[in-house]
Every structure is written in structure tokens, then in C-alpha cells.
Amino acid sequence: MLRALGYPRLVSVENFRTPNFPLVAEVLAWVVKRFDPKAEDLPSIVETEHDRVLFIRMVAQFMATKAHVRLNTKKLYQADGFAVQEILKALTLLYSALQNNDPDNDLEDEGGTTHNFDMSNRTGELKQIRALASNITTKGAALFDLLRREVNLREMRTNVMNRPLEVIDVERGLQEAVAACEAELRETQKAIENVATDEATVEAKCEKKKTALERNQKRLLAIKKSRPAFMDEYEKLEEQLKIHYNTFVQRFMSLSYLELRLEENEKNELSQMSQREALH
């Protein structure tokens, strides 16, 4: 994957059979530069334990804030196969961006053959981010308004909770709730009765339409079976029309052929006359 991303040297898993912190640091520094070429320079000296801890902490913080990738600092510090798994998280993100990029803009001269990770063409994601930011702002404003009203609401709620309950008030509330339930029940029963009435009306209309349909179908069959009085004369005239049409077509073809032959004869006569005049 490093080779596809344009890393300037070959790296194998065998390089990490034993802890190899200098190579891990080199790869991590290169990855950070690929994400943000303007990122601050990382410590180049990683000989002491303090330098290594500082380097790993800076890389993990950068990846978490810029690329939203969480790296396990303990595994990175081990600089072995577990560190390779953590590095692959960032490399996978870069490789997926490379696959989504326009292939005409992938290559860039930078000492060797490298790839350009231009995120400007991902307009769809930018639109989603803008919409999400707008939604977060709206929700935040609504939440702020609710929290501001909570001061008064808390006081009102406390007063209601601390107020002693009167039996008369409780009874009145229950009676109102029962009355509301009874009114809703009556409305529901009325709606059910209306549904039954509507169902009977619809069934009567369906029966009426069905009867009309059967009557029209019978009438249609009767019309199909009946033969008009003028049908015999119509068929005779149709046969005569076919004969006259065939005669017309034959005569028209003959006339067209004769006109064509007449035109050819006239052209031949004109050409012969011109040849005779040329001889004299």
C-alpha cells in the first residue's frame, strides 16, 4: 500500500519482526505530510524515550484532529507488527482517497512518482457537511432556548410538586378525564355507525353498476349478432371498388411507362437531329 501511495522506499513486514522505531517514525512523519503538507515539523530526533513519547503523542493528536483517526499510542511505541496495524488505519484512508480521485490528476512529480490527494472534488461530502453544520446550529439554538426556559419551568414544576394535593381537585381531574374518555368513545361509535352506513350505500351502488354492466353487455352481444339491411349492398360495392382500383393501378402504370418511353424517343430524335446538323 505504501508503494501505491508513492512512498520513496520499499517497506516489508519483515522490517517489523523486531522493534524498529526509526522506520515507524519515518513512515508516520511521511503520512502526516501526506495529510497536511503545511503541518508543523515533527521531532526528527527520536533516540531517547522522552523524544519517542513526544513524537508518538504529536502524531496521534494530529491524526485525531485532522483525519479523525484514533491511533493506539502504546502499539505505535512498540514499533512492531502491532504498530503496522495502527499505521494501516491512516494508510487505508489515504488509499481510499486515491481510489476516489480522478486518475488524470493522480500523478505528481515530487522526486519520484507520488499521488495528489486533492479533496476539492468531493463536493457531495462538502454539501453534506454544510447541511449537517446548519442542522447542528439549528438544534443548538433550540436547545439553548429550552435551557433558558428551564429556569422558570423548574420553579413552576417545583411549586406544583410541593403543593399538597386536595381530594376535591383529584376527584375533579378524574371526572374530567372520564368525561373526555366517554366523549371520545361516543365519537368512535358514531364513526363506526357511519362506516356501516357508508358500506351499505357503496354496496347498493356496486349492485346498481353491476346490473347496468350486464344490461350493456347483453345489448352489445345483440348488436354484434344483428346484420344491417344495407350490408349486402355494401359488400357488393366493396367488391366493385376493388376491381376498379386494380384497373386504375394497371392503367396508371401503363401510362407512366408510355410517358417514359415517349420522353426517351424524343431525346433520341433530338440527339439524331443534332448529329445530322453537325455533319452538314
Automatic annotation (TrEMBL):
Residues 171-198 form a coiled coil. GO terms for cellular component: cilium; intraciliary transport particle B; microtubule organizing center. It comes from the Eukaryota. InterPro entries: Clusterin-associated_protein-1. The keyword Coiled coil applies. It is found in: Cell projection, Cilium. It holds the Pfam family Cluap1. The keyword Ion transport does not apply. Keywords: Cell projection, Cilium, Cilium biogenesis/degradation, Coiled coil. GO terms for biological process: cilium assembly. Its main location: other. Belongs to the CLUAP1 family. This is Clusterin-associated protein 1. It comes from Hyalella azteca (Amphipod). The lineage of its organism: Eukaryota, Metazoa, Ecdysozoa, Arthropoda, Crustacea.
